[in-house]
Amino acid sequence: MAVAVSECFGSTPAALRGLRLEASVEATAGSGEFAPLYMASNRRGTLSSADNVVLSAGAVRPMECDRRLSYGYGVELWGGYSSAVGYGRYDVSTESWGMNRRRPPALWLQQLYGEVKWRSLTASAGMKHEGSPIVDDRLSGGDMIRSANARPIPGVRAGFTGFQPVPLTSGWLGISGELEYGRFADDGWWRDHSALYNGHVAQGEWMVYRRMHLRTDPGRPLTVTLGVQCASQIGGTTTYYRDGEIAKVEHRGHKVADFIKILAPVEKGAEDYVLGNTLGTWDLKATAVVRGGWSLSGYFQWIWEDGSGMAKLNGWDGLWGIELKAPSAAAIVSGVVVEYLDLTNQSGPIHWAPGDHPSTSITSEATGADDYYNNAYYNAYAYYGMGMGRATVMSPLYNTDGYMSYIGNRTRGIHVGVEGRIGRVGYRVLAGWRKAYGNGYEAMIPARRSTSLMAEASMPLRSVPGVRIGVQGAIDRGRLPANASAAAVSLTYSGLWR
């Protein structure tokens, strides 16, 4: 288990405040090359292979929200053994294909950060787990822009501590937001896993993430949250491959001013239309408190990859969800999530910009083929191969032919998540179906389908305080990427050191 996201102690009693220590050991065994979808997804990129024995250890000291000035920090290490996966690799010297077997590292630093809070403002630096502002990271199939599917990127970030009241609204309206500058540290992963045959590989990229959400008074029976998320890739050097040969190397340096301009990308000219690659979502969530203290939420995330998507010319594309939460986490059913994902419109099949074809006589523009999470100049929207957005859109890591882009982002699917507790046993069940038709430019013929199921249970050991034992089983049936089944057993510890 990963160290929990550090937020605040809030009004926690002093006896429960302190440094929280966490450790885990987990063993998995599976039938395929990869772990099934719901065993690998939304766990911060810590497991993807079928067979694993992995250990983690960490400590986190959250900030204290009831103090004007406070600080926090966290560290988390992972390591162990994972089975290898074969990726296609082209050898230009022999003009032949071979198998490039890769496996996760034996040891890596998952989190290392420090943070400080002053009044309603907070800032942090390092690698830190962040959560979705809209969906439940445990029960959802994942946020469209910032999910729990990939490792945290090293960077600096600043923003509000939770929602803060907007002046002159008498507490009726709150605002939340943050700005993050990060540096991708996975250059070696892209070089090692790419086929180096067709496509491109970028190195030295930067990421800029920003969001802003408004929320009505949560003390009222109906609460509405509305906002926007944006993520951008800038800078770096891209090497383009054609039939195994290097066709072009493009250096896209960056200046200090670019980190400001990227906050609102604008036209730059005929050769470089918009600075960087930016994608985002329009977010809306409405939560009503119903009988017995249960809460019922409905939400959507409308994804956009360019101007056509921002103007909602991409039809019904986006994530649509319903969430039901019990007033107590000890209920037999404490949470239910049902989601529908549709990414099949993509503003139509054609993208035509006259500036891309200087000699053309066709001067009209067609802004389609949005090709979510892919870009012609930058790497796919992924970190160490795992998608940073919706986990049910198959990540580049699963492309064993070494083509490092999303091949199935034109997809639709249904996802269901349920959790609760029966006596001392906590459980969680995730199930889903998805069908991919290809991406914005290439069709899958025939379309690929996959059905996935995962069930897990955990129970505290009375004889050893703070220790839980867990079991998990998962299965995939289909071609996204392949049939797979696996089982896992884990021991986790969580406790305070005062």
Task: Give the topology, please.
Layout: E1 19-30, H1 37-40, E2 52-61, E3 69-82, E4 85-91, E5 96-102, E6 107-118, E7 121-127, E8 155-160, E9 164-165, E10 173-183, H2 187-193, E11 199-203, E12 206-216, E13 222-234, E14 237-242, E15 245-251, H3 256-261, E16 277-289, E17 295-304, H4 307-310, E18 318-325, E19 335-342, E20 351-352, E21 366-367, E22 382-383, E23 386-387, E24 411-422, E25 425-438, E26 443-460, E27 467-478, E28 484-497
Antiparallel strand pairs: 1-2, 1-28, 2-3, 3-6, 4-5, 6-7, 7-8, 8-10, 9-10, 10-12, 11-14, 12-13, 13-16, 14-15, 16-17, 17-18, 18-19, 19-24, 20-21, 22-23, 24-25, 25-26, 26-27, 27-28
At a glance:
The protein is built from 4 helices and 28 strands. It is mostly beta strands and 498 residues long.
Helical stretch tally: 4
Number of strands: 28
The whole-number mean of residue pLDDT values reads 92
Distance between the termini: 22 Å
CATH class category label: Mainly Beta
How many domains make up the coordinates?
1
CATH architecture: Beta Barrel
Helix/strand/pairing category: mainly beta
Measured as a percent range, the helix fraction is under 10%
| Shape verdict | globular
Protein name: Capsule assembly Wzi family protein
InterPro entries: Wzi_sf
Organism: Paramuribaculum intestinale
